[in-house]
């Protein structure tokens, strides 16, 4: 099955982990009150942790015991790395070698398009570079989270926490930021730090680094350490597209949120110009899938909610800890529209041609993602009777594994929680991986049907 369909292995392992975590979080030892956590809440938390979403139906600061918090931390680390990548790292650590099966597993985790088909990856991450990528994944996870912990802990000590509680909460926040989960272990959440430029800047950097993806971090590392132009000539197309599109969406979100909320006294209207600009750019970065918000979505204008919906639906980079349809997907779609408008036969970016196969995958991801969001929104609206803007925000946050919330998750009945959990699962697994798992392998026909073109547009 590893050779024929790595996607099915990913789905089986991923789903099995969620079931195991659900069982463990249901135990009395996992709750601070030493009571059995209801199945719907345990399942929702397990899915939210392993899918690195950050939505919750219980108070994360008071409900879970130390054992429960450790389970959640382990779950979000596994979900952030990717189950197949983690398996490959463990195999490499134990055996000191990386066989073909491990390379195929890791390659399928970093690029779902490899699953079931031959893909040229001369400008991304090939099988020969998987070992270096796995080392970069493990190193960046440890180094970045420890660095974030070092920066966060003193601020919590200054807030009145003793050293050990500050260290624990600092590491929890660091892991939550880098994995783009969005869980906050502090009583009252981040509300006491709503105008704390230092702490929020550290969290924003962690979220941004996690959202660009491990292949991009690996490419940047090779570019800087390897001597840049002398060693590798240039960054690959994937890295350039990811960084460029991510920065464009951050700037767009920054300007849009600031323009739409600057006169809203419930959000940014009561702040000075500097705080308004900082809060809006921080909120824009959190829509990459970070979820560590300091603005209540219920207080935002409807126009702002729609902008945030769009940003969350796009999400972060491919093979990252972020969710959504991914920035490279939307970049390819815009490049295709531009090529069509200019009359070009091929899509081009950064002096490279993008094959039409990538466009087909991008269109599929967009359609399946929109379908999942639509189906979940209709179901939850029918169950709850809540208005569209509130339900759509919560559903897109779940699908994009973002974690920003209007509070609807905690008010849902069990059927609604199961629907939202399934949405988080689909958003994290990825529509490409899900389709590859169903199809098992790509199929080729020995014939082609006669061509006839329908009218489009």
Backbone structural class: mainly alpha
Fraction of helical residues: 55-70%
Q: What is the tally of helical segments?
A: 18
The largest sheet is: 2 strands, antiparallel
Listing every helix as H and every strand as E from the N terminus to the C terminus, the arrangement reads HHHHHHHHHHHHHHEEHHHH
Distance between the termini: 42 Å
Membrane topology: Multi-pass membrane protein
Pfam families: TrkH
Main location: membrane
Subcellular location: Cell membrane
Explained architecture:
The chain has 457 residues and is an all-alpha fold. It has a domain at 6-314. It has 18 helices and two strands. It has helices at residues 6-26, 39-50, 66-81, 83-95, 100-110, 130-158, 163-178, 197-212, 214-225, 229-232, 237-261, 273-286, 302-314, 327-342, 356-384, 388-399, 414-429, 431-439; strands at 347-349, 352-354. It has a two-stranded antiparallel ribbon. The two termini are 42 Å apart. Mean pLDDT is 83; it is low at 228-232.
Structure characteristics:
457 residues; mainly alpha; two-stranded antiparallel sheet; 2 strands; globular; cell membrane; monoatomic cation transmembrane transporter activity
Q: Can you summarize this structure?
A:
It is found in: Cell membrane. Keywords: Cell membrane, Ion transport, Membrane, Transmembrane, Transmembrane helix, Transport. The protein is mostly helical and 457 residues long.
SSE diagram, text form:
Elements: H1 6-26, H2 39-50, H3 66-81, H4 83-95, H5 100-110, H6 130-158, H7 163-178, H8 197-212, H9 214-225, H10 229-232, H11 237-261, H12 273-286, H13 302-314, H14 327-342, E1 347-349, E2 352-354, H15 356-384, H16 388-399, H17 414-429, H18 431-439
């Amino acid at each position: 099955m590893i050779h024929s369909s790595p996607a099915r292995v990913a789905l089986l392992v991923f789903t099995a982990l969620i079931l195991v975590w659900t069982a463990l979080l249901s135990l009395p030892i996992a709750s601070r009150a030493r009571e059995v956590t209801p199945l719907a809440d345990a399942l929702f938390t397990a899915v939210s942790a392993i899918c690195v979403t950050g939505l919750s139906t219980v108070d994360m600061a008071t409900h879970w015991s130390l054992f429960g918090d450790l389970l959640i931390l382990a779950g979000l680390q596994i979900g952030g790395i990717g189950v197949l990548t983690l398996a490959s790292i463990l195999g490499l650590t134990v055996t000191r070698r990386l066989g073909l099966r491990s390379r195929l597993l890791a390659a399928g985790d970093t690029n779902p398009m490899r699953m079931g088909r031959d893909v040229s990856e001369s400008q991304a991450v090939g099988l020969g570079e998987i070992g270096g990528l796995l080392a970069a994944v493990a190193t960046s996870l440890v180094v970045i989270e420890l660095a974030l912990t070092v920066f966060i802990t003193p601020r919590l000590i200054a807030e009145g926490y003793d050293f050990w509680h500050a260290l624990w909460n600092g590491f929890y926040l660091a892991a939550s930021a880098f994995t783009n989960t969005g869980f906050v272990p502090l009583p009252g959440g981040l509300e006491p730090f709503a105008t704390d430029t230092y702490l929020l800047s550290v969290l924003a950097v962690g979220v941004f680094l996690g959202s660009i993806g491990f292949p991009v971090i690996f490419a940047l590392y090779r570019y800087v350490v390897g001597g840049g132009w002398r060693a590798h000539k240039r960054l690959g197309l994937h890295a350039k597209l990811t960084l460029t599109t991510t920065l464009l969406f951050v700037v767009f979100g920054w300007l849009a949120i600031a323009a739409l909320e600057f006169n809203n006294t419930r959000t940014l209207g009561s702040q000075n110009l500097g705080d308004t600009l900082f809060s809006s750019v921080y909120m824009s970065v959190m829509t990459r899938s970070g979820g560590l918000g300091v603005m209540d979505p219920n207080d935002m204008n409807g126009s702002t909610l729609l902008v945030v919906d769009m940003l969350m639906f796009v999400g972060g980079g491919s093979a990252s800890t972020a969710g959504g349809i991914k920035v490279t997907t939307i970049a390819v779609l815009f490049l295709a529209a531009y090529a069509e408008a200019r009359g070009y036969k091929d899509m081009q970016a950064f002096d490279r041609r993008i094959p039409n196969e990538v466009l087909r995958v991008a269109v599929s991801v967009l359609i399946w993602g929109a379908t999942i969001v639509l189906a979940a929104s209709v179901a939850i609206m029918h169950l709850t009777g809540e208005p569209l803007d509130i339900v759509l925000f919560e559903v897109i946050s779940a699908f994009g594994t973002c974690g920003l919330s209007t509070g609807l998750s905690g008010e849902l009945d069990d059927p609604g929680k199961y629907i939202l959990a399934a949405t988080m699962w689909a958003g994290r697994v990825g529509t490409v991986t899900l389709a590859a798992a169903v199809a098992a392998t790509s199929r080729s026909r020995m014939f082609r049907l006669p061509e006839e073109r329908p009218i489009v547009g």
